[in-house]
Amino acid sequence: MEKTLVLIKPDAVKRGLIGKILSIYEENGLSICRLYKKHLNKELLAKHYEEHIHRDFYPSLVEFMLEDEVVVVEIQGDKAVSLVREINGATNPSKARPCTIRYIYGESVQRNVVHGSADLEDAKRELSIWF
Ligand code: IDP
Ligand code: MG
Description:
By secondary structure, the protein is of the alpha+beta class. It has one domain: 2-Layer Sandwich (Alpha-Beta Plaits), CATH 3.30.70.141. It is built from seven helices and four strands, in the order βααβααβααβα. It has helices spanning 10-14, 18-27, 42-48, 58-65, 80-88, 101-105, 120-130, and strands at residues 2-8, 31-38, 70-77, 114-116. It has a four-stranded antiparallel β-sheet. The longest helix has 11 residues, at 120-130. The radius of gyration is 13 Å and the shape is globular. It starts with a strand and ends with a helix. Bound molecules: inosine-5'-diphosphate and magnesium ion. Inosine-5'-diphosphate is lined by residues 52, 57, 61, 91, 109-110, 112, 115, 118.
């Protein structure tokens, strides 16, 4: 059993998609362990997105992530880390496979609805930031 981190991003929270998104993980055999809603701040985002802080898109990513609350979710299951990435779909919704969350609900490469940890090591690091 693995554990991984999902963030339901502000675009999805604003559009009332929390329940629909959580259902998709559950329908794929994953369990929701813990979750809470939170308005983020720049310090937490810098920790979470430390690999991206020097990227051109980072300031705009931060602005987006502060638009509204996010839902922070710990998800558990067999191969949960890679399964969540598969269910989420490619970063750019226009390149995501049909039936993925980002294909269905994503609006742009930035407003792509969900975050999922990239690998097991990242999942451990991110879960320790948020829980
Ligand atoms: P991931 O969320 O699929 O792991 P990352 O490359 O780690 O993708 O990027 C983190 C987040 O930053 C993305 O989910 C997206 O919201 C945003 N992002 C990534 N690349 C771009 C870009 O080129 N323009 C605007 N936002 C981006
Ligand atoms: Mg990433």
